[in-house]
Amino acid sequence: MNIQVISSVNEARTDDLQHKTVIVIDVLRATSTILRALDAGCSQVIPVETVNQAKSLHRPGELLGGERFCKKIPGFDLGNSPLEYTSELVDGKTIIFTTTNGTRAIQKASKAGHILIGGMLNAEACARKAAMLYGDIVMLCAGTQDVFSLEDGLCAGLLIEELLKLQAEGLIRSAAGTGGGSLTVDDFGLVMLQAYRHVRGNLEGALLSGVGGKRLSRIGFHDDVVYCAQVSILDQAPVVRNGRLEAGMSLPL
C-alpha cells in the first residue's frame, strides 16, 4: 500500500486520484467543521465548490454554511467555525457547505475510488477506515490559496503515524486481502511524519504558530484553532458518496 501526500489542492491532478483512497485534509477549518457538524447530528452535508452552487441547491429548511477568506458568506446561516455547529442548530438538518479551499479539494477528488474526510479530530478512525480498503492512499492537503499549510501537513504526518501503528498490529491488508501488508510512504509524507513527531507534544502550539493559526487568532477564531488541534476525539470517518456526506455514512470497520 503506497501513501502519497500532496501539499495543496493546486498540486493535485484529478486523473492521478482515480481509483485511489483520497483523504481530504483541511484542518483549519473545513474538514474539522464537517466532522463537527456530523457529530452534532446533522442529517447530511453537501460540499460544493462555489457560492452560487450552494445557493442554487438550497431548499427551505436547509442550512447554508461556509466562508470566503475566513468570514461567513453574507446571507448564509453559518460560517466555517466548527464551534458554531451545535446540536441545537444542526441536528437533523441538511447543510450545504462551501469554503475557499476544503470543499474545492473534495471536488478535485471526485474521481477517487473513495473520499474520506480527515482531520486531527478523527485521525485514528480515519486511518482505520483507510486501512480497510486495499489500495493506494493519497492524502490531499487543501492548503490555503494554493499554498501549503502547516496544519494540514502535520495532520498528514499524524495519519501516517496511525497507519504505521496499524501496520505494526498486522492490520494493513496485503494484496491477497489478508493482514500483514506493508506501507510505502513518499518523501514528502516522510517529512511530514517527522514534523508531526517533533511537535506532537504541543500540537496546539504548533497550529497557533502557523500562518493559518495566527490569522484565525487575529480575527477572533483562536478557540477554533484550539478545538481543531485535538487528536482523535471523534470516532467517525465519513465518506463522500454521490457528492454528499450523511450521518453514519462510513465504511464498515
TrEMBL record:
Its EC number is 3.1.3.71. It comes from the Bacteria. SUPFAM superfamilies: ComB-like. It is an enzyme of class 3 (hydrolase). Its cofactor is Mg(2+). Keywords: Hydrolase, Magnesium. Transmembrane segments: none annotated. Pfam families: 2-ph_phosp. It catalyses: (2R)-O-phospho-3-sulfolactate + H2O = (2R)-3-sulfolactate + phosphate. Coiled coil: none annotated. Belongs to the ComB family. This is Probable 2-phosphosulfolactate phosphatase. It comes from Paenibacillus filicis. The lineage of its organism: Bacteria, Bacillati, Bacillota, Bacilli, Bacillales. The gene is comB.
